[in-house]
Amino acid sequence: MIEFYKMSGSGNDFIIIDNLDLSLDVGDLSEFARKICQRKFSVGADGLVIIEPSAIADFKWQFFNSDGSVAEMCGNASRCVARFAYMKGIAAAEMSWETIAGLISASVTDDVVKVRLTDPSPVESAITLEADGQTFILDAVDTGVPHAVAFIDNLDHYDVQANGRKIRFHDYFSPRGTNADFAEAPDRHHITVRTYERGVEGETLACGTGMVAAVIAAAQRGLVDSPVNVLARGGETLRVYFENQDGCWREIYLEGPVKMVYQGMLFAEAYQS
User: How many CA atoms lie within 13 A of 153 on its CB side?
Assistant: First the structure.
């Protein structure tokens, strides 16, 4: 049996496995992730994080979306992993770890985690795309993973599932594809964000890198000032901090509470055909 932990960052839920001793032996990890992230048939989650040893940081992770694809980075998983590592004694309250996107650092205070993300790419503003007779005006930015942000009125009633899928698979973003974020900024310190996530292939209750992408796109448009309170679809509010240094967005932080939901043991039936 395999020990695992289930954690939630604002409704974005993850399975976390401590593999510091490198004893995990389940064959193809992408297929393992796909199977145990299936809701109703296994544990169910938006993603899987496997923690392994690192020579340059407190640890490194392997991160898989629920469809088994590898993701470079995930903001809410980062918050969950930081609290997990602190609770398990893997790292101190101030820590760093390796991801495909680069080194990520975080600080933990009780159940609140503040993560410093890698510097985003320059914002590619006002991209106009056509899809199925619709016109989308998007701002693209990579916050560890690619995002395309559209600013929408009446966001609560917007069809994120249908329109997000059109953007996510649009030829413009081929071959990587993109996450699609839809945002509404009522004032200079508040923004609401809904995200269609690549790899989950649907709207999630929260997306940390998507929240950051929407804030940076809004800042680029002159709509918001740091810090920004970001309302996620799941109802929780996170905070994003940023600085503009010589025209570049730097010192990007994502802060908010995370929940340790439960600890369990995974039987082979949960991931074997």
Answer: 0
- Amino acid at residue number 46: D
Half-sphere exposure in the Cβ direction for 223 (13 Å, CA): 17
Looking at residues 166-193, what average pLDDT do you find? 96
DSSP 178: -
Instruction: CATH number of the domain at 44, please.
Output: 3.10.310.10
Residue 49 — pLDDT band, cuts 50, 70, 90? very high
Q: What is the pLDDT of residue 133?
A: 87
**Claim to verify: residue 129 and residue 245 sit in the same structural domain:** yes
Angstrom distance (rounded) from CA 267 to CA 269: 5
Which tokens hold the place of 203?
């709207």
Q: Is 74 tagged catalytic?
A: yes
Q: Is the residue at 86 inside a domain?
A: yes
Structural contact between residues 142 and 116, judged by C-beta atoms closer than 8 angstroms: no
Contact 233, 203 (CB under 8 A): yes
Is the bond preceding residue 120 a cis peptide, omega within 30 degrees? Answer: no
Given the residues 37, 80, 207, 248, select the one marked as catalytic. Answer: 207
User: How far apart are alpha carbons 37 and 40 in whole angstroms?
Assistant: 9
- Quick one: 104 and 129 in the same domain? no
Residue 124 tokens, joined: 């590619």
Number of domains in the chain: 2
- Cα(10)–Cα(258) distance, integer angstroms: 7
Instruction: List 195's β-bridge partners, or say none.
Output: 181, 204
Structural domain of residue 63, as residue ranges?
2-111+259-270
**The model's pTM:** 0.92
Per the annotation, the verdict on 80 as an active-site residue is no
Residue 118 lies in a domain: no
